[in-house]
Write a structure and sequence with these properties.
The complex is a heterodimer of chains A (594) and B (187). Chain A has 594 residues and is of the alpha/beta class. Chain A is built from 21 helices and 22 strands. Chain B is of the alpha+beta class. Classes of the chains: A alpha/beta (594), B alpha+beta (187). At the A-B interface, β2, α6 and α21 of A face α4 and α5 of B.
Chain lengths: 594, 187
Amino acid sequence: MSLKDLISPFYVWQRAFEKPYTQKRPIEDRPGAPRYRGFHMNSEDCIGCGTCETICQNHAIDMVPVEGLEQRSGDSGLRPRFDYGRCCWCALCVDICTTRSLRMSNHYAWITEDPDAFHFTAGTDAMPWNQNSLGYRRDDDYHLLVHERIDMQALGAEESVAGFDEVMKGYTEEQAVLEADRCVECGICVATCPAHMAIPDYIRAVRQRDYEAGLRLLYETNPFSSTCGRICTHRCETVCVMGYQGDPIAIRWLKRAIVDRVPAERYREILGDEVVENGRKVGVIGAGPGGMSAAYYLRRQGYAVTVYESQARAGGMLRYGVPSYRLPDDQLDKDLEYIRSLGVEVKFNTHIGRDVPFRQLIEDYDALFLAVGLNQPSALRIQGEEHPRVLSGLQVLDDVASGRDPGVGSKVAVIGGGNVAMDAARVSRRLGADVTVLYRRRIEDMPADPEEIHESQAEGCKLVQQAIPVEIKNAASTSQVTIVWGEAEMIADDKGGRPRPVLQEDRMHEETYDCIIAAIGQGGQLDFIPAEYRDRIEFKWNKFVPGEYQQTGLPKLFVGGDIANSRADAISAIEDGHHAARGIHRFLTGTLDG
Amino acid sequence: MANPIELLQRFGKNFAISEIHEQKADLTFFKVPKEQAVRLLRELRDDAGYTHLAFLTNIDWIEKGIFTLTYMLHNYDARHSLGMHVDLERDNAEMQSIHGLWAQAATYQRELREMYGIRFPGSPRLDEDFCLEGWDQIPPMRKEFDTAAFSLERFYSREGRGTEDPREHMKGLLYPTHTDEPSSGGQ
């Protein structure tokens, strides 16, 4: 052993008083690179879809309720909580985030003695990096999701206005699979769908080309799937998470993609046709979507169901209010015929109150479901509206649906901005008329579906916004009519409501048309219910206010559809019918009182 | 030095070079068939100044059924890097070893054997564990390896974990009665 070997251990002591190379943490901070993948941040744009949780390969993310955050349509109220014992900082959660709310800060060093502190809800728990402006976020040109909707073949405006052929042609199988492939299956849409359809599940069935499974899923909540696959108001698509960065999934068209691929003859084999009679009978008033939906679900449970319909055909507003270029008759019949094939009896041309007294129904049946809809056109409430050349939008649509000529002439004004107004305008275009639509608010305020507004314009209907009808007068010819209307200014509402149109009396117009079609809304007609019963039922503005399970103050009477809800669309009526069927079953099996 | 594109075009007379792509001023990628790869690496090292093997890695294209090996070379004089892509069949993937060209390649090849299951016959210590001691699963960087399932099965969860499905959560709070009871049939 040399002297050096003996002394060398003591050399290290010479450094004992030098400044150490070790960095003092956490006192001295060393910031991460601008795009460093550090602790997660989440903005208030998050809607709790859980796609980050789904893609996480390490099971590091849980979706948890956050105190003070309410779930609502389009937001689950859940937020991602990260377990940093599992996170590997791969950032797939950031890359996939549907709303781009999830990011990473460039904060990478955090020291605490409590290991459980590394388990928190990003964005809502107070963390020191929540306000960081740096850190990783997805590049604009890098996408894990497909943002563009697969287009559907449609008739051109010129072709479509030439007749009553269906405008939208439906997806091919390949198109449907590609569109279905865009869905992240978060299920946020299910709460918004009035019927709470199993949307992600049936989209998966499309992706797997399993149309039988798809049809069974559709019928769990909606026996009008061919119809709704075409004309549903698709509230689901308004909350679809894919809509945040691109186009929402074409949920409505994918529903249609299933029913278009299953022929009507196969429905009973796929859905099962065994009905075990339970010996009880239920009456239904109105063979529209609400009444027939209730009939379907009641029949499935073994009830003998009789439907009373005042018209000659079933379908209600779907038959008489929706033109065939949007919903061909044979498609509506496909839905209706299947329901009837299960043994649901429909008595046509039967008016309750005139042909059969209401009292008799309420006494004869174990329970009654009423969904008579809104079929009385609302009055314009202006001078001269009883002029014979003022037609109602509903009447025009009814005439066309029934094969009669509504006689609109060649120059038509339509008053209103809802779907009935748009349909009346488009029908008039198809009958060869020059069409002007007068609407009192702005086009963006129109309650009609955006597609309908867009297509009516493409087909040559002229939309005049902020136009208030003032008076209707006789024209020089008795086959014509003159309308006086004034321009409106939109005035902000002090109380926070939507802007109000105010007539500008110095800007009045006068124009003569072959007819004026009034389509500003509909009301109900309930005179057939005797006063002794009416007194026990709650109404508001001539509509029913149903209780739990659509039941009324008359325990045997359940109600639904446009006459009993504010949404007044087919899918809401369908759910009312389904929900009333649940209620009637509970009522008659003793788990729901009167 | 000639510019990299011209260089690759010159080598292209003897090698089937394709997919030349200038990623940025100091980095160019290209592809060459498996059989020509090692001969080309030697020429790039000895005749074109790409003396340094910066790394060797792999990309798994499971849908296409191929692996793409990436050899990253650097030329210190030109301050330029070349990324050479080589496609292999994904099943029973095997590649000629380059530990004779760069000794440190043996370590990368050992790692690729462990992470993807690629064989490099003759490479030193190829079958020794690299960083996965006692690994008993399929190689973990292969895309068919289910990381989440493995992690759930192998490790216990931190206390206090628990998740909610958005759809079921919303159903329970927003429309609890709008759901069918199990059918009671014809009672």
